[in-house]
Design brief:
0% strand
């Protein structure tokens, strides 16, 4: 099958946004450029990523899901917990069911791919996914266990991606539409810059119920619907500017899973196990630029062939032999 370089390029853009947002987020104050950046990216980068994941989930095999998603999740979950305890000296509660930091996405992806084909037999799967999310948001008992809250919150984007026709989206890519899309993104950034004080990125991560965000049920439902609309609009706007042809970033886009799985662990070590952030904070703007430069280099390293080959070994554990034995 010929690679879709357009979606590879889109994934490359998104993985850079993911990693830079996580690292720069440690320096974001109550307001300012970094705070604006982190809120802006949180509005759409995971919805876009998840939609692309849904697009590539047309055929799912349970054994492959276990090998390619569940086993890497368990490996990195245990590795994260070991780092938390032995390196960062944190008082942890060992659990394989409460995903560490960024690992929620792997667990959610496993469940999405496991149920999507059955779910798509519904008459209006996207509408049903949205309604389910709006209802679950009112239940404060649904949280991080098995990444259930985020799994349900982001599921509409997975369904949307599954149903998506990329060729139709690219047909919308006219000069006028591109200019309007750029204007929408610019206007969003301006609004965030002047209104972001007091807001947290957690408002857009789907990990908390309405009550946990200090919202009433009605306010929470309306806010979640607004977040869905903005995320979909920004995902489309960015899609209008992503390069369609193969370029130097296309390879990076084909290796996003390796980058995603390792960067969260490295972030925790740098953020909580070294004085790097304290030093760079004292350096002001120069410190933030140094951090940004370092993060870009980190993305390139984690997306390199040797790192990806090592990461791929995790999925080669002969699970099928254990299943046949039992």
């Amino acid at each position: 099958m010929e690679r879709n370089y357009y979606l590879d390029n889109y994934k490359a853009v998104l993985i850079v946004l993911v990693v830079t947002t996580h690292f720069l987020g440690g320096m974001a104050g109550e307001a300012g450029l970094i705070k604006t950046y982190t809120i802006f990216t949180n509005l759409f980068y995971m919805p876009a990523f998840i939609a692309i994941s849904g697009y590539f989930s047309k055929k799912n095999d349970a054994l492959k899901l276990i090998k390619n998603i569940l086993i890497p999740y368990l490996f990195f979950q245990i590795l994260n917990l070991l780092v938390d305890y032995f390196l960062l000296h944190q008082d942890i509660r060992f659990s394989l069911l409460m995903p560490e930091f960024t690992l929620w996405y792997l667990l959610s992806l496993f469940f999405w791919r496991l149920i999507i084909e059955c779910f798509m037999k519904l008459k209006y799967p996207l509408l049903f996914a949205v309604i389910l999310s709006l209802i679950i948001g009112a239940d404060s008992n649904v949280g991080g266990l098995l990444s259930l809250s985020r799994t349900i919150y982001f599921f509409p984007f997975f369904v949307l991606g599954y149903q998506c026709n990329v060729d139709r989206i690219l047909k919308c890519r006219t000069k006028i539409v591109q200019i309007v899309a750029l204007g929408v993104m610019f206007a969003t950034v301006i609004v965030i810059f002047f209104t972001c004080k007091g807001y947290s990125e957690f408002y857009f991560r789907g990990s908390t119920s309405y009550e946990g965000l200090g919202q009433s049920t009605i306010t929470g439902i309306l806010f979640r619907m607004l977040c869905y609309l903005i995320a979909t609009l920004l995902t489309f706007c960015v899609a209008m500017w992503v390069p369609k042809r193969k370029n130097i970033f296309s390879v990076l886009g084909s290796r996003t899973m390796s980058i995603y799985m390792w960067h969260g662990l490295i972030y925790k070590i740098v953020r909580y196990g070294t004085p790097i952030y304290s030093v760079l904070m004292m350096w002001g703007l120069e410190g933030r630029l140094i951090l940004l430069f370092g993060v870009v280099i980190l993305v390139a390293i984690l997306g390199s062939k040797p790192i990806c080959q090592v990461t791929a070994l995790i999925s080669k554990i002969p699970v099928e032999r254990l299943i046949k034995t039992n």
